[in-house]
Amino acid sequence: MTSKLQKNFYLRDDVVGISRELLGKVLCAKTNGGLTKTIITETEAYAGEIDKASHAYGGKRTKRTEPMFGEGGIAYVYLCYGIHHLFNVVTNKAGSPHAVLIRGGKPLSGTDLMLKRRKKTVVDKSLLGGPGSLARALGITTENTGTSLIGGSIWIEDHGIVIDDDAVTAGPRVGVDYAGADAELPYRFIAKGVQ
DNA sequence: CGAATGATATACT
DNA sequence: GTATATCATTCGA
What we know:
By secondary structure, the chain is of the alpha+beta class. The chain has five helices and nine strands; from the N terminus they run E-H-H-E-E-H-E-E-E-H-H-E-E-E. The protein has one domain: 3-methyladenine DNA Glycosylase, Chain A (Roll). Strands 1, 2, 3, 4, 5, 6, 7, 8 and 9 form a nine-stranded antiparallel β-sheet that branches. Helix 4 (111-118) crosses helix 5 (131-138). It is globular and about 45 Å long. The mean pLDDT is 94. The protein binds a DNA duplex through residues 44, 46, 53-55, 60, 62-64, 78-84, 86, 88, 101, 103, 126, 130-133, 142, 173-176, 178-179.
């Protein structure tokens, strides 16, 4: 059974709960003429204005973070360190800059295309190991920021994969040391045994 | 462990 | 309008 996640999934105000539920879901991207699918195994929640690690902390609204302030159900893609594209799913209603960063996944379909984009020949965990690599393998770029996840070229499917609570690790986020105490929040979710 | 690399935010003139 | 500091990272040594 497969079904595409609908808008009401993204509109809830529990961004941490959504991050947890996205584990095991399938991220699909039809970019550059090719279709790729990946099972989401690692996510991170960014709780907008109350979260120092978020670009939108304190309700800061800029041209770059604009998509996060929009309605849930769209993509927010940001170029980080001049090299890496990071893919986020915007959640909550318009005006609440919540988002879920997709940090890792496992190839499901379109593997050849991912290998080609990463210039690799074998599938290993470095293919989708990390937010920058994952976005590159899926062909996601900043061009895709603001794209709708309902009816756009990027969407998320539910394949009926259930990740048991025992298989979920919640922990502090990485790479956000500058956020001080907020970097310690257990907003990071990893699905064990799927990777 | 350290460099690469470029858009963006912020603080200036 | 122009300048500089900073970054939700990765790869290679």
